[in-house]
Design the sequence.
């Protein structure tokens, strides 16, 4: 374990190190190695100056070789999690800034290069009222550089009891090396209940029906891990808990409040409104507001790496000069960040704030079109094309917010649907890697490009496309979506709001039609598309027949002459 003082550049495949800093520090560390893998960076222990804020003291992590790269995440004194950050390439930078308070700060960091996170073979979704989970290889020692995430979800209106019946991880006072972290919710960004290591039998309890468990290990000293069981029990009824449901999608925001909850606060449906009073709710058993994200007085805020849509549901007495009822505001937020939509509800009541969260997604799709007008999509699958035919592809964002742009950052082709080891880049970091690729300027919620059809060698029948998509705020000047091609060496990327990927295919060359599918219908289609091939076959058959007849006549003539006692003679011309 090295002890770098203020900044360093690392090229090791993995490394663990402690950082000690005092006041007024501003130090940068860079990690870079030509590995064609991503970097997992873990701050397993951090100690800032007491009462410091994110504005004066923090760790900022950038997704690239410099601080000009996009901001990947931030760690502060009040960070309620064990920060684990994953780069999108083989370089990463982090900067630690401290304020002027005289205090000994301490941090423990380790990183390692890892393959695609989709290949993790542990963790997963656990549902039902009870269940079990174990560390990889249990009761044998767990592997090095393990990172597993289990999401537990039990029936609605219940809470989760998690008990580790056997637990043995590497022992450390601050659990810096191997640890298990338990979160009260579905994310690992906040809501840390506890972090444990060593030998014990810890128990945890959630406040709702969702919980997340993380196992993280380093490169040395593996032990047998853990075996755990979870159960659930009904939540106690409480009139204070808001009966409010918020659902966010890329198109709209939906707020549902029960009449019984409003009545418990002394209000009914006539006392409720959102920022724009002209937006009326639908009233049945509940009071339901449903409207597009950019309407009904909803405000939008861009903080550089996410976008938040906010509206306020107000409850107040009407028609009176005075009131003795509490004024209540329900602040609803749809936060679009990374690869999910985070829905947050704040209920304010005389400065008392309560909140609840849930998870959703943007809706992005990719399709092929028959021409550059992008008016008629191709519905057939597989999509049969001619070799070197121009193909037109469009990525679509399905959202009611008109101020968003879509940008194709990277697009990769593969002969396999799971995008295994054999791949070919069409677009990388916004740059055209294939000579035939032409990208179109961003238009509203669409990103478009064209390229010439090709096939992989070694007789692969299909081609699949997978594209990484960035979504930016159109009102932001010089956003990543408007910068186009940026090389890795000059990666000066403004922040984008959201990143995902989408897949299209398979594409098959028409010449491979019969080998790709032996069905009768495809054979007929092949014959219909190739009348010249049938004509050539019949001509060849006729030539072969005539040749056989001539050979037969020659043999018969020679035979008769031989019988007559004559030797082999040259045939007379007729």
Sequence:
């Amino acid at each position: 374990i090295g002890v770098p003082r203020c900044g360093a550049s690392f090229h090791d495949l993995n490394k663990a190190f402690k950082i000690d800093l005092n006041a007024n520090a501003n130090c940068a560390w860079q990690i870079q190695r030509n590995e064609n893998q991503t970097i997992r960076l873990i701050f397993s222990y951090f100690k800032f100056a007491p009462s410091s804020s994110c504005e004066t003291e923090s760790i900022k992590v950038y997704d690239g070789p410099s601080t000009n790269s996009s901001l990947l995440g931030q760690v502060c004194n009040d960070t309620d999690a064990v920060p684990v950050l994953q780069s999108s390439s083989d370089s990463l930078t982090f900067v630690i800034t401290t304020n002027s308070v005289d205090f000994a700060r301490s941090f423990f960091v380790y990183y390692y290069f890892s393959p695609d996170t989709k290949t993790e073979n542990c963790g997963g979704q656990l549902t039902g009222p009870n269940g079990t989970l174990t560390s990889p290889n249990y009761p044998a020692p767990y592997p090095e550089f393990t990172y597993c995430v289990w999401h537990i979800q039990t029936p609605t209106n219940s809470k989760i009891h998690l008990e580790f019946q056997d637990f043995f991880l590497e022992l450390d006072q601050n659990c810096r090396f191997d640890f298990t972290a338990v979160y009260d919710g579905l994310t690992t960004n906040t809501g840390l209940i506890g972090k444990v290591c060593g030998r014990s039998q810890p128990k945890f309890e959630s406040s709702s029906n969702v919980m997340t468990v993380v196992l993280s290990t380093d490169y040395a000293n593996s032990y047998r891990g853990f075996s755990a069981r979870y159960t659930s029990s009904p939540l106690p009824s409480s009139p204070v808990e808001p009966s409010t449901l918020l659902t966010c999608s890329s198109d709209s925001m939906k707020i549902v409040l029960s009449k019984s909850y409003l009545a418990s606060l002394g209000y009914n449906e006539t006392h409720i409104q959102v920022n724009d009073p002209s937006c009326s709710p639908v009233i049945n058993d509940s009071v339901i507001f449903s409207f597009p994200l950019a309407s009904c007085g909803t405000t939008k805020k861009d903080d550089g790496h996410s976008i938040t849509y906010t509206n306020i549901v107000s409850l107040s007495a009407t028609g009176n000069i005075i009131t003795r009822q509490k004024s209540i505001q329900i602040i609803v937020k749809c936060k679009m960040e990374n690869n999910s939509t985070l829905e947050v509800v704040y209920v304010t009541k005389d400065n008392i704030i309560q909140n609840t969260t849930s998870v959703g997604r943007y809706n992005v799709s990719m399709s092929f079109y028959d021409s550059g007008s992008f008016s008629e999509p191709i519905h057939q699958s597989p999509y049969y094309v001619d070799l070197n035919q121009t193909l037109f592809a469009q990525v679509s964002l399905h959202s009611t917010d008109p101020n968003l742009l879509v940008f194709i950052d990277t697009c990769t082709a593969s002969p396999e649907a799971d995008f295994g080891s054999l791949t070919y880049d069409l677009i990388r970091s916004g740059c055209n890697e294939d000579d035939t690729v032409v990208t179109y300027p961003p238009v509203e919620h669409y990103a478009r490009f064209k390229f010439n059809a090709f096939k992989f060698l070694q007789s692969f029948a299909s081609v699949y496309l997978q594209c990484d998509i960035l979504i930016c705020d159109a009102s932001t000047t010089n956003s990543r979506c408007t910068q186009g091609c940026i090389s890795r060496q000059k990666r000066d990327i403004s922040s984008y709001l959201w990143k995902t990927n989408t897949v299209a295919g398979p594409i098959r060359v028409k010449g491979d039609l019969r080998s790709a599918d032996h069905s009768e219908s495809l054979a007929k289609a092949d014959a219909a598309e190739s009348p010249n091939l049938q004509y050539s076959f019949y001509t060849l058959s006729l030539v072969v027949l005539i040749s056989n007849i001539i050979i037969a006549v020659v043999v018969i003539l020679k035979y008769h002459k031989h019988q007559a006692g004559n030797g082999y003679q040259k045939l007379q011309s007729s």
User: Anything to note?
Assistant: The CA atoms of residues 480 and 494 lie 5 Å apart. The chain has four domains: 9-113, 124-234, 244-360, 363-486+497-509. Residues 531-563 form the longest helix (33 residues).
